[in-house]
Amino acid sequence: MRKIASILFFVLLFGSISLFAQETGTLTVKVKNENGDPVAFANIFLLKDGVLTQIGGDTKKNGNCIIINIPPGMYDVQISAVGYAKTTIEGIKISAGSNSNQKATLYRKSVEIGGVTVKAEIDKVEQDKVGSSTRIDTENISDMAVDNVEGLIALTAGVSMSDGDIHVRGGRSGEVVYTVDGLSVSDPVDGGAALSVDMDAVADMNVMTGGFSAEFGNAQSGIVSIVTKDGDRNYSGKIEYVTDHLLSSENSNYDLLRFAFGGPVLGYGLGRLRDNFTFFLNGSGSWTDGRFKDSWKNDPNDDFVLEGIPLISYDYAEYDPYKNREEFLWTELGDRNYNSYNLNFKTK
After folding, report:
1. pTM value?
2. 291 within 8 A of 252, measured Cβ to Cβ
3. Contact assessment for residue 80 and residue 57, using Cβ atoms and an 8 Å cutoff
4. pLDDT tens for residues 22-44?
5. DSSP string across 136-170
6. Among the four 106, 127, 144, 212, which has the fewest Cβ within 10 Å?
7. What secondary structure does DSSP assign to 52-74, as a single string?
């Protein structure tokens, strides 16, 4: 019994590590001096929005440093060593499940300089990439003409959408594995994703269409890995409202309301706790009658008329599903023919 429990513990442990690795990124930094020699024991720290984080490490004797479990986003890297001027690499993009390789040169402090700032190198070829994948981050999402995550996925090469189902490389919809923040959310019965995420809550998304690495299982055609947004040290938010029935009567009676709000949980004046204890709240609701909304309203008596002469004597009541709706500011309240609600909350 103890042996079985030990095996189960290691399975859960390594399974959790594997999932967590896909929602974070890795940074590899190689540090040399002006003579091309490796610099050992150099301190490396990451900055986000100009604020020093607790993510970092130090170089080994060969001048290399590998930093793992980095949340996706844009970072600056600060490098310092005894006897050398401090160097900063700006604009390093960390994506979920990927590795960024950077090189830095430290200059001896015998010549007093105020520090060196260089731009991050962009990897033209990802040497650690073994499969086919497309990464979409929050900056690109705002430029895309879609209003849901399924639409984002369908824009990827090799992916198509039919009747609301995602198909990768011609496979069935149930052959796609979905993860959100490292947790599998695939529907084991009907396929697809059992958990919906609003676009405003997506920080990074990786759509893999082939050549999966060894840590993935039960994926036959594709993998969709989503990382949701975190709050930061400053409060921020947005409200969005979309409608189609203010200027025209030819519409689907469609309304969409979205909001997002995030920031520190305990407010200002608490130092490090303000940066490390944050929240992000996002919600959305959509209401529509659809483009066939006029077909729902009908008079059954019209179906029993031949050349203007009623074929039956009984007068059926007209069916009008919209007669009891209340309006407020040109918007109908309550449910419509098709309704969708979504609420996401994340604390870190």
Report:
1. 0.64
2. yes
3. no
4. 678 899 999 999 999 999 999 99
5. EEHHHHTTSS-SSHHHHHHTSTTEEEETTEEEETT
6. 127
7. EEEEEEE--TTSEEEEEEEPSEE
